[in-house]
Amino acid sequence: MLTTLFSLPSTMALDVNEEGRLLVLYDGTGVRQVNEIAPDGTWRPLTDLGDTCRGARFVPGSRQVVVEHDSGGNERGQLSVLDLGEPGLPKLTPLVHDLDYVHHLVDTKPDRVLYTTNRRNGVDFDLVARDLTSGDETALYDAGGWVMGVSASPDDRWVVLSLASAPANSIQLLLVDTATQAITELTPADAHNDQTAVSWLPDSTAFLVSTNAGRDRMALRQYDVADAAWSDVLVDDDRDLAGWASPNGEHLLVGVLEDGEVSLVLHRLADASVIGALELPAGGCAALTMMTPNPLWSPDGSFAAITYNSPITPPTLYRYVPATGEVAELRAPDQPEPPAELTHPESLRVPSFDGEQVPVFVFRPTGPGLGSTVLHVHGGPEGAAMRIWSPVISALASDGHTVVVPNVRGSAGYGKRWYSLDDRELRLDSVRDLAAIHAWLPSIGADQRRAALWGGSYGGYMVLAGVAFQPDLWAAGVDIVGIASLVTFLENTSDYRRAMREREYGYLATDRDFLESASPLSRVDDIRAPLFAIHGANDPRVPLSEAEQITEALTKRDVPCQLLVYPDEGHGLVKLKNKLDAYPQALSFLRNHLG
Predict the structure, then answer these.
(1) Element (H, E) at 242
(2) What is the DSSP-derived secondary structure letter of residue 295?
(3) Parallel, antiparallel, or unpaired for β 92-96 and 78-83?
(4) Residue 231: pLDDT band by 50, 70, 90 thresholds?
């Protein structure tokens, strides 16, 4: 079962061209590569790299494709060009290569490519337009900061930049005139606003954005360029909304996020009136997650490419035709079916120390029950546990564990108030939520004495914090690319990441004492639970030294621990061969200590 779960391939939509051809990321080879799907459903592999492809876009009006790829998970993207007119597997020709810096593909136009890069100083990200014929480059934006998103208007006159701003989990929107590089601040730099999914109207007069400016939930708002005015399009006080306008001006696809599920509803673009919900499988996500790229309209608006996944379905591509309502799955040749025994979770609430209610998903064992429980904690910290495909969770349930997947305070998807409850000095309140869940376990028939923690990235920090600050509660921990010390993490993370992470955790210059006190490493002498750690040697986010220092400290105290390091991985495991090496060992570790 384990090999089957991790070997199930995923497909994610990247781009649609004027002929209706699709670019997708597909990992059927064990490493995520770029494929093209022709209008007749024929699949063609376009890359066969030893490392993961990060993105790709068609060059309009040509048979060229620009590909972003990195090396060994280091996230320093490089840009290359494919000529699809070549027979067989096309040759990858370098376009923008500098292995010391990040280059992120943003968009392609008939004569140029837009990308962001930190090569000017290693910290700030500039937006650059490169002429595909001459190779000449123009900096459209070089005023500093981390550009997290870019959306160019259809007429190429404007670009909306999403810039990481001062408060935690906040985005500032800037409007850039591509002819003059003049910058207009659309939202304040110090405002506590999350803003995402910018979608231009076809005539370039306005754009839509999902934003919680001035409210708790993400609403769909419109900015009119000529009037410099904001207006509400759709608002829901209980759910998060986002929207994507069709290029023909007829339709608006609206994503609705509620309790970890993202459904899609078709509206008329003219007045936002509802036409009807898309007939996708229930209980999953069709947008707004890292595993689920947002819907992509074809250039003529005749169909949308939708990536959908759920706890029982790996990321899968669908073609939606609004004229007929047809939703058709686009499957790779010989794509296997997921195991029939996979299940959706229960959604429950857990009372915490201060009366707050912590949302949790509970996956019951699908194999012979062991009576044990594993808390699977998401990363972020402002991420979220969503109803998405997770072979790790399915494997834990198949191994006989009850799997509890919490959205502790600080998680997105439940409003601004909830995701702000762990900022800075409130950091350890989210760890106290873990203790509340532990106390609640008997109510679902779980044995508190056989409860373990599993998490990656910030979830790895939560694992280490749980076993360090609550040593009497947890029987074992599995830490994947987790933070052992907030101080050394901030000191050693990539320069371009430090400023953004300090706004969430605290600043080295002013908050060092607090950062030390909230670090699991400061309480390492209290840890008694066995620990299993997994890390990529090339991790640009959480350096390998975080795993090395916690496991070295535990080894000196004779606490059982093991560290697996993969030389060709970065922030987590993406290659199938490494997953099939690491995760069986981690599951065996839990069986030994919880069985």
Answers:
(1) strand 240-245
(2) P
(3) antiparallel
(4) very high
Q: Are 76 and 62 in contact (CB under 8 A)?
A: no
* Interior angle at CA 370, CA 366 and CA 373, nearest 5: 85
Tell me the pLDDT tens digit for each residue of 358-405: 999 999 999 888 899 999 999 987 899 999 999 999 999 999 999 999
Q: Which tokens go with 254?
A: 């609206």
User: Residue 588: CB partners within 8 Å, gap ≥ 6?
Assistant: none
Do 23 and 15 form a contact (C-beta atoms < 8 A)?
yes
**Closest to 360 (Cα-Cα) out of 445, 438, 426:** 438
The reported pLDDT for the residue numbered 412 is 95
DSSP symbol at 292 = B
Residue 93 CB-half CA count within 13 A: 9
Q: Which residues pair with 148 in a beta bridge?
A: none
Residue 457: name the closest of 478, 436, 475 by CA: 478
Residue 138: strand, helix, or coil: strand
Max distance between CA atoms of the chain, in angstroms, equals 68
Burial class of 4 by CB neighbour count within 10 A (0 to 12, 13 to 18, 19+): middle
The token duo for 500 is 């953004």
Residue 239's CB: how many other CB atoms inside 10 A? 19
Burial of 557 per CB tally in 10 Å (0-12, 13-18, 19+): exposed
- Least confident stretch, 29-43, 287-301, 342-356: 287-301
SS3 call for 458: helix
Residue in this structure with the two tokens 């996979």, named with its chain if needed: 342
Q: How far is 149 from 584, CA to CA, in rounded Å?
A: 37
Q: Which amino acid is at 228?
A: A
Are 234 and 219 in contact, with CB atoms under 8 Å apart? Answer: yes
- Does the pLDDT at position 251 exceed 90? yes
CB-CB contact of 253 with 285 (8 Å): no
Tell me if 160 sits within 8 A of 198, measured CB to CB: yes
Residue 595 binned pLDDT confidence (cut-offs 50, 70, 90): confident
Angle at 344 (CA atoms; ends 341, 349), nearest 5 degrees:
140
What is the amino acid identity at position 412?
Answer: A
Q: Are 133 and 112 in contact (CB under 8 A)?
A: no
**Which are the contacts of 88, defined by CB distance < 8 A and separation ≥ 6?**
none
**326: Cα separation from own chain's centroid:** 28
Tell me the per-residue pLDDT of 447-500, one tens digit each, with 9 for 90 and over. Answer: 999 999 999 999 999 999 999 999 999 999 999 999 999 999 999 999 999 988
Q: Which residue has the tokens 């995923």?
A: 10
User: Cα(543)–Cα(547) distance, rounded to whole angstroms?
Assistant: 8
Closest to 394 in 3D by CA, of 372, 364, 349: 364
- The neighbouring-strand residues paired with 361 are 347, 405
> Before 359, cis peptide (omega within 30)?
no
Q: Which pLDDT score, from 0 to 100, does residue 290 have?
A: 67
For 496-509, the pLDDT digits (tens) are 999 888 988 889 99
- Residue 117 is classified by DSSP as E
- Tokens 């384990």: give the residue: 2
DSSP 570: B
* Extended beta strands in 296-384, E state: 296-297, 304-310, 313-321, 326-330, 346-351, 357-363, 373-377
Amino acid residing at 539:
D
